[in-house]
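A reminder before we start the practical. When you read a complex entry, don't treat the lines as separate problems. The point of joint prediction is that each chain is placed relative to the others, so the output describes one connected object in space. Small molecules and nucleic acid strands, if listed, are placed in the same frame. In the example below there are two entries. Take a minute to note the order of the lines before looking further.
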Amino acid sequence: MNDFMMYLNNSIEAANKKEQELIATERKDEANLQKIRANIYGICLTVVQVVAKEKCGKELWEDYVVRLDNIAKNWVKSYEKAKLHNDVEKILIEETKFQVLNEVKETIRKL
Amino acid sequence: MLEADAIKLFKCLADKSRLQILKSLVKEEMYVERLAERLDLTPATISFHLKKLEDAGAVTSRKEQYYTMYSIRKEVFMTNILDIIKEESDEADEQKQREEAYRKKVISAFFEYGKLKSIPAQRKKERICLEKIAKVFEVGKTYEETEVNEKIEAFFEDYCTIRRDMISEGIMKREGTKYTRKQ
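Here is the predicted structure of the whole assembly.
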């Protein structure tokens, strides 16, 4: 659990650092994507802290993944809508969120 | 080039990745994946930047078999910056541009993919939304109420409120069950 929390905190820190680097090199739009990444890691951190108060062991991780998937349901709708209307900005934002979520789930799997 | 177009273009160019894309395109036209490989960015990021460049009039695209090829619009970059600065701007034109920019802002905030998300609380904003919806009606043509409802429903579920507000705002005129759009 501590390792996972550390991984999330490090990821937030890395995304924030990358955001500042991109701003410094005049890549504001890509910097915003890093901000989104940091926010998603932040959401994952909040959710795991909530679940950890209620459950432990295998149950904790199972419930955690279910809750993350529930959060992502709205993103799926938004992504599908964006694809339908070829809204490239929204597509990129939603894909960034999925990337982070998949990375977090993969990390849990490896725990 | 209009002042508003120049501002849009300059804002768009103030990004390192977009300048890198233009540097590649000035040599030859390219498709998204090739640019992505060249600039070490994801195809989705490249598409996003290309959309911004296209909206600002800096690049143009054409379909070629399975690919969309992008090229730089050289004529835009041949424009003399001094000519843009020297261009006299008319106060009435500027006012019109400000109003149009405000309309666009309201529409993009309250519409998503052509559907009205919610009715704005502010009257001025609601009127802008109602005027946008009213464009589906031809000026001078008479419509039955059911037809009016159907057309409004394509934008927003609560067609009754929209229909009534269009009448009270003077955008549509009702005579019995017949409706016409005013000028």
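Discuss with your neighbour: Residues 91-181 of chain B form one domain. What might explain this?
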